[in-house]
Amino acid sequence: MINYAVDYWRILIEAIKQKxxxxxxxxxxNVTWEPPPVGVVKINTDASLASGEFRGLGAVLRDHLxxxxxxxxxKMVRNWDAETSEACAxxxxxxxxxxxxxxxxxxxxxATEVAHALNSKTYKLDYASTFVKDCHHLINDxxxxxxxxxxxxxxxxxxxxxxxxxxxxxxNVWVDGGPLEIMALVMxxxxxxxxxxx
Length: 198
Description:
The chain is an alpha/beta fold. It has a single domain, classed as Ribonuclease H-like superfamily/Ribonuclease H (Nucleotidyltransferase, domain 5, 2-Layer Sandwich), CATH 3.30.420. It has helices at 2-25, 82-99, 112-118, 127-138, 156-165, 180-197, and strands at 41-51, 54-62, 68-77, 104-109, 144-149, 171-175. The chain has a 6-stranded mixed β-sheet with strand order 5-4-1-2-3-6, sandwiched between helices. The longest helix is centred in the N-terminal third of the chain and has 24 residues, at 2-25. The radius of gyration is 16 Å and the shape is globular. It starts with a helix and ends with a helix.
């Protein structure tokens, strides 16, 4: 119980710090994560290459209010390059959305090359293209799909979740929530949405 209280207190303090940062940044255009339209789930994905032979994948699914509808992470024993890892994270996010029954999605990645590949039908002869092709096949499982590039600063929650994946085993999925490692960032993004709406 004490550990839970300490963790909650740490998250609350971090959210307050980030909220203060948000309030000073809110005057700039597009400085934080932007919510999807009503009825659409936005999936932010990222990959972490922080550990030699392991890769961490993160997928954060949020609604138009910035509410966390699901989050997922996976630890993979692979030695892929950054582009391949990011493409795998995009496929991972789409598979999580499909498994949870979401029909209208926007997928954002901060990997420029991956976002470009997802929006085109041309493939390179590399391993990353395998995951991009898988994403294109998964489009048929949704009513609408939009692929977008996001600045790294918009992708903080997915980035932190991908890093956290490296300390967890296998694949973890949270419905209507996520692990403690990301909750302060989620709260900060929600507060920033409120900041810009006022």
